[in-house]
Amino acid sequence: MEDELEKTLHALDGMERAEPKPFLYTRIQGRLERRRADTYSRIWQLKPAYVIASVAMLIVLNVAAMLVYSRSQRQSGTAKPSIDAVASDYGLSFDIQ
Amino acid sequence: METQELIVGLQRGSETAFRHLVDTYQRRVYNTVLAIVQHPDDADDVTQEVFVTVFEAIKQFRGDAQLSTWLYRIATTRALEAYRKKHARKRFAFLTSLFGGDDGEDSGERLHPVEFDHPGIQLEQQERARVLFAAINRLSDQQKVAFTLHHVEGLSYQEITEVMQTSLSSVESLLFRAKQNLKKQLHSYYYNA
């Protein structure tokens, strides 16, 4: 039995190196490409310059939307008398006391 | 391509140098990793990860160790991480199955661990190697790495000290204890069988 044990203990003597599956380099390249793409998207999300630029763009868009809205409100305010005139012509206007 | 030339090429991001590195070292890395993780697909995955790590970290390589030593260090570290991660998942799956969770595909493998046949072992030694690899699996991480580098990769004690960044006496002690532990395990395998 001791002999068996010793033989098993030396079972790796003279073993050969195992070969990886073919095209290992291609698979590594693919993994590197995926890693690069992930890193690029993460950098875009986290780099302060991009974050600040995105926030600034949002603020500009909001301000522009507010300006456009207030201008259209003013224009509808000037058009109001003519609508009132049309309404009174057709007897559709009334005053609430 | 000379090693120094290879390192300079890698640090410049040369694709030729990287291909040369993979071609030269893939067998050593794969063979080391396979002996630790003991699963061909996992070994393939870890080997890819080792080369990706080398590609990304080569600029920090200062040349105070040999390139092969550095590769062996990354390979053994990554292999042990992968092995621990896989077995932690299995333990978790076992716990969930105890509480009535889904048994999953791994349950059979967990209860009857897959026996590992190393493709580089001669046919007449396969049975014994299978028993020995199962025993190697139960060694501590440090003993497993030292034993693998010496008996599977054929590294000298001095080379192992460089890979493991430890003293010669520590490597001698690790290998002595590894052998003692393996003998104990094999003893109980043969005498209690």
Strand share of the residues of chain A? under 5%
Oligomer state equals heterodimer
Low-confidence stretches of chain A: none
Percent of residues in β-strands of chain B: under 5%
SSE order of chain A: HHH
The whole-number mean of residue pLDDT values of chain A reads 84
Mean pLDDT of chain B: 89
Distance between the termini of chain A: 115 Å
Order of helices and strands of chain B: HHHHHHHHH
Instruction: Round the Cα radius of gyration of chain A to an integer and report it.
Output: 39 Å
Largest sheet of chain B: none
Low-confidence stretches of chain B: 103-113
- Sketch the major β-sheet of chain A: none
Query: How many helices of chain A in DSSP terms?
Result: 3
Record field, number of beta strands of chain B: 0
What is the strand tally of chain A?
0
Anisotropy-based shape of chain B: globular
The radius of gyration of chain B is 19 Å
State the distance separating the first and last CA atoms of chain B.
Answer: 53 Å
Helical fraction of chain A: over 70%
Protein structure class of chain B: mainly alpha
Would you spell out the secondary-structure blueprint of this structure?
The complex is a heterodimer of chains A (97) and B (193).
Chain A: H1 2-9, H2 24-46, H3 48-89
Chain B: H1 3-11, H2 15-37, H3 40-57, H4 67-98, H5 106-111, H6 126-136, H7 141-152, H8 157-164, H9 168-192
Model description:
The complex is a heterodimer of chains A (97) and B (193). By secondary structure, chain A is mainly alpha-helical. Chain A has helices spanning 2-9, 24-46, 48-89. Chain A is rod-shaped and about 120 Å long. The mean pLDDT of chain A is 84. Chain B has 193 residues and is an all-alpha fold. Chain B has helices at residues 3-11, 15-37, 40-57, 67-98, 106-111, 126-136, 141-152, 157-164, 168-192. In chain B, α2 (15-37) packs across α4 (67-98), α2 (15-37) crosses α7 (141-152) and α3 (40-57) crosses α4 (67-98). Chain B is globular.
What characteristics describe this protein?
heterodimer; A: 97 residues; mainly alpha; 3 helices; rod-shaped; B: 193 residues
